[in-house]
Each structure stands twice: as structure tokens, then as C-alpha cells.
Amino acid sequence: MKVTEHLKNANGKTLFSIEVLPPLKGENIRTLFDHMDPLMEFKPPFVDVTYHREEYVYKKKENGLLEKQSTRKRPGTVGICTAIQNHYKVDTVPHIICGGFSREETENALIDLQFLGIDNVLALQGDAIKNETRFVPEPDGHQYASELLKQIIDMNKGIYLDDDLQHTAPTDFCVGVAGYPEKHFWAPNLKTDMKYLKHKVDLGAEYIVTQMFFDNQKYFSFVEHCRTEGINVPIIPGLKPITTKTQSNVLPTIFHIDLPEALADEVEGCKDNAAVKQVGIEWAINQSKELIKFGVPTLHFYSMGKSDPIYKIAKELF
Questions:
Q1: CATH code at position 118
Q2: CA 245, 249, 255, 258 torsion-angle sign
Q3: Which residue from 33, 122, 46 is spatially nearest to 83, judged by alpha carbons?
């Protein structure tokens, strides 16, 4: 079932959903299931599964020269989505990214997803490779999420890369995109960022999932800006509880977000990470209650491989 159908069937009730990471290469699928098992108590209608692009290492050869070798830290998202759907009978939302894919490889991945009965995808640009300062697309790949989105929408219309194909069957993906309440860090300002988001919705994006935020006013303002610009698709808030002291510095750096002064002060005053975790849980519960009152379609939690704090939050809400 499509994400938008789940939201419609909820009849205004706020749902619970999660984003999970594929297990590290060499780990058993049970690692992921052990993480997810407690959270299934809250009946998420869909689960997002991230995609991690290939990275590269340089290994010295016997002649002293360096050889570039590709590595993949985590197994393929397509297989993980299928495993989750088979195990839990719950819909999955694989992340499809620009980085690491040519247009043909993207098309083949989407065909596989269609054959497997996966109805949803989240179209993202993806991160730059760690040793690159800017995102660099693959040869014949997409530079921007909007280009990737257009390819998916074209396939929904039966338009494939090979113009000579006859009697092509259209796909039927429900496509989500990312939104940034504190703007994407590459955008010069929020107005420009909103223009690009509106373009993606005009192309056919059916819902938006936001970057994590810790100040609900940022989300409320973002929704208001979207509606003013004619962006009327569901806007799902992304949430993550802080669990360690280092996250108060790391999360703003990596995700280009602000922590409210009150939260930062509370974390700074904690004696250890156990105290930080409790502060993060309580902050997220209060955030969630306010968002539910606002009428958000779903509380979408970025689990990052840690289910315990999310379980405690959901237990207070659902």
C-alpha cells in the first residue's frame, strides 16, 4: 500500500513510522530484526530503509602505486526492504539516491522494486563521498533529486530510457522527497530552497519527509511557507532523540540544524550519557505531543540503529 493511502486511511489520526539502517556488511539480518521487534508493537504502517552509496579506499600495491577499490559498508536496500516486508508484513520505503547510480542502474533498481511489490520510494540526492567536498554524480547519473524524481515519474507513465521499447508497463510508485525546515545547506536562502521543493512537488512528489529538527516552531513555520507556496502534499516531521553528549555538537554539524538553547543547556548540564538519554527522551515526548496536537500525519523517527529511546517515547504516545 502507498504511504499516501496509509495517511488517508488514518482519518486524521497521527501515525507512527520509523527509518532504519541496513545492517553492516557481514552482520545477520537478525541484527536489524532485533532492533525493529520492540517498535512493531506500535504498528508502523511503513518503514523507511536508507541507502548507503559505495565508498572508496586506496590500497598500496607491491610496486608502491595506490589502487582505488570500492567498498560498500551496508548491503543493498532492495533486499532489506523485501526481508522486512516478508517478515513483518509491513510496507517499506526504500531510499533511492542519485549518488552511485547511472540512470540505467536507477531504472533497473526501480524495475526490481516493482517486481517485488514495493509501492513506495523516497527520492534523494544522497551524500557526497566522504573524501569529496561536493556531490559528484556518476557518469550518466543524476545531479539533483528533481532529475531522479522525474525519471521515476516518467516510469510511472510507462516512459523508459530505451525509446524503442514497445508496450511498456507503467510503474506505480508513490514518491516522497525530503524537506528542510532549516533549509538545505547548499541553498543560499529558504526562499530558493522552497522554490526547488515546489518544483519537485509539481513534478509529482506526493509527500514530504523533513530533516530532523528539535524546535517545533521551525516545522510550523516550514509548513506555513509550504502552504503559502502552494505545496499542499502531506508534510511528515522527522524526529530523533538525543542520546549522547557528543550528539549536541555532531548533529548540528552533520545535518546543519540548530539545537534550542534550552535543550543544549540541559544536555550540557548532564553528568553522563544516561542522563542525556533521559533528557532526549523527555524532549522528544514533549515535541511529539505538540506535533500531534498540531495534526501531523505521522511522527517519523530516525532510529539510527537504536530502538530503546524510541520505544520509550512511543510508549507515552501510542
A1: 3.20.20.220
A2: positive
A3: 33
Residues facing 208 on adjacent strands: 177, 235
Q: 0.85 cut: is pTM over it?
A: yes
Closest CA to 196 of 174, 221, 226, 217: 226
* Helix residue spans in 229-301 (DSSP H): 247-255, 261-268, 273-294
Segment 82-92, tens digit of pLDDT: 999 999 999 99
Cell numbers found for residue 88: 513483518
Instruction: Note whether 301 and 313 are within 8 A (CB).
Output: yes
Q: How many domains does the chain have?
A: 1
Question: Looking at the DSSP assignment, which residues form a beta bridge with residue 66?
Answer: 60
Other beta carbons within 10 angstroms of residue 91's beta carbon come to: 23
Rounded to whole angstroms, how far apart are CA atoms 176 and 3?
Answer: 9
What are the grid coordinates assigned to 142, written together? 543524476
Reported as a single tens digit per residue, the pLDDT across 42-95 is 999 999 999 876 666 667 777 777 776 665 666 688 999 999 999 999 999 999
Using alpha carbons, list the distances in angstroms from residue 92 to 2, 46, 101, 310: 9, 5, 21, 19
Domain carrying residue 143: 3-317
Active site residues: 19
**CB–CB of 94/133 below 8 Å?**
no
* Phi/psi at 92 (5° precision): -120, 155
| Unique residue bearing C-alpha cell 557528543 | 246
Closest by CA position to 145, among listed 105, 175, 190: 175
- DSSP 8-class letter at 43: -
